[in-house]
Each structure stands twice: as structure tokens, then as C-alpha cells.
Amino acid sequence: MGQRRTSLKEIAEQLGVSIATVSRAIRDSHEVGDEMKDKVKALAKKLNYRPNPFAQSLKRNAPKVIGVVVPNLVTHYYAAVLDGIEDYATKAGYAVITANSHEDHLREEKAIDNFAGMYVVGIIACLAQDTVDYSHFIEINDMGIPLVFFARTCLPEMFSSVVSNGDEAAKEATLHLIDTGSRRIAFIGGPQHLDMMKRRKHGYLEALRERRLPIDRSIIINGSIDYEYAREAAMDLLRRDDRPDAILAFNDIITMASFDAIKALGLRIPDDVAIIGFSEGETSFFVTPKLSVIMDQAHLTGERVCELLLKNINGDKKIYKEVVPMIVKIRESSDKRKD
Question: Where is the HTH lacI-type domain (predicted)?
């Protein structure tokens, strides 16, 4: 097995400087003094640092490459966003490389470090669910590499972003559940610190307040974006004597996990438990009963976030906040009324 490649981050940590400083020193940038350049290059030689050959090729041939990091590439939503990014980028003459963080902060951080080492001209990112330290994004900003977020965002004072109107959509969906016979509506969500989670939960709570229904915090789940975790959480709620009679689910993974939990307990949808969830997946139409969903315009989101990144790359330093509206699609799983 070959020797593990030393990263820019490791050199930076040993010298107590930023990745940006190390990158600039290795590239002989005028922004770094000669003494620091000498220190960086000496340590790089000692650690057998070798620039990524792909990165060197990129630098020599100067193609226009964008890096994209997403939390879960196999889901329909992220695949559709990536499709939108690639469509827009290709028309503008850019290539796209993608990294999957697998909802893991360390993998996300590594992907961003790799992109920096590849000399990408810009980065598009959606936060992993456990990311609460944003220093790797600050480093990218310090290096002068344009970066734009979509869906799950951070550092709004530094970076442009494209999000959905999840608060309004969650409120509309919750009002629909109330107006069609549900009275005890659970919300099964993701980690509380995610801005996307906060928006969707806010809309749910606003609907309960508007219809003057009591808010029961015991049926509001702030958990993990994981199928088995969400399924077990839904099962626990539905086994209670005072079980909810409806579920609003945070995303497609949690929606399908909750749907499966209802079925596994032999409960009828929507008679016993109505359900509506945020989902871009096409499978929602093919389950029985057909699943009511709140749909992202994922492809459009991808186009918009790429458009903002290219503005940054081309010198526009304005910080943009763009909202792509969601579509509430009512099918059979959410209406308790009988014809």
C-alpha cells in the first residue's frame, strides 16, 4: 500500500497557521512573507508533501472546475440538485466534481480540503447533519475561493445561499392536516441546529398556533437523519396510548421511515394516522396509499446555486439569499375525511 499523502491541513496545524497561508506559501504567493514560505516549504519537504497530481494538472491546464459536496448523494433530492448544477455549469463551460460527506463532518472537511488542493474555481456545499464547526468554510473564504451553500447553510454574513421556503410549506401542510381532520400532529425532524430544521419546525408550530391547537413537545422529535432512527422514533410515538393521529416528516428519509412504521404496526393510513412529508422521491407516488408530499424544486435549486457561484467567480462579491418555493402535493395519505 502506498504512503498516505500529507495534507495542507496537517502542515498548517504543525505550523499553527491557516490552510490558506500554507496554500499561498507553496504557490509562492506575494501575500506570504519569505520567512513563512521557507518554513512551509521546509516542513512540506520533511513530511514528504506531494501536490495532488490531478490538482497540478488542473493548475497547468486551467480548466474551470467546480467542487460540490453533498450529505447523501444516493437520495433523489441531492441527485436532482446535482443534475441542476451540472446542467447550468456545462452550459457555462464549467466541469463539476462531486464529494459525498455521508452526513459526516470530518468527511465534509476532508472534501473541502481536497477541493482546495485541486485548485477548483469555486465550491457548492450543503452541510452534513453533524457539522457545527464551520472553520473549514472560513478557511476557504480566506483563500479567496468562492463558496455558495444550498438547503443547509451557515455563516450567512459570509456566503450566498439558496434555500426553500420550508417554513411556509410546513405551515401549509400542517394546516391541511388540521383542516382534514387531524388534531394531534407529530413532527419528526432532524438535528435542531440545522437552519433547514428550524424553518420547517417553525412553520409547523405556526400552523398549530393559528388553529389554536395545543403544542405537545413530547411529540416533536429533534433527532438524526437516519432511516432506522426515524423508524424507531415513529414506532415509539405510535405505541403510546395518546399516540399522534398525524405525522409531518422532515425529509424523504424520515418520511419513508415513518410511513413504514405506521404500516408495521398495522395502523391504517390516513384513518388512524395521516402522514405528509418533505420528499422529492418518486417512490412517494407508488406506495399505497399514495403519499402526500412537500416537494422541493431540486433541479431548479441546483441551477440557482450554480448561477450564484458563477456570479461570485466572475467578480460579483454581493451576498445573495435566494428562496426557491416548494410545492405541496396532496394525495391520499393525509386526508381523514371520507367522501
Answer: 6-60
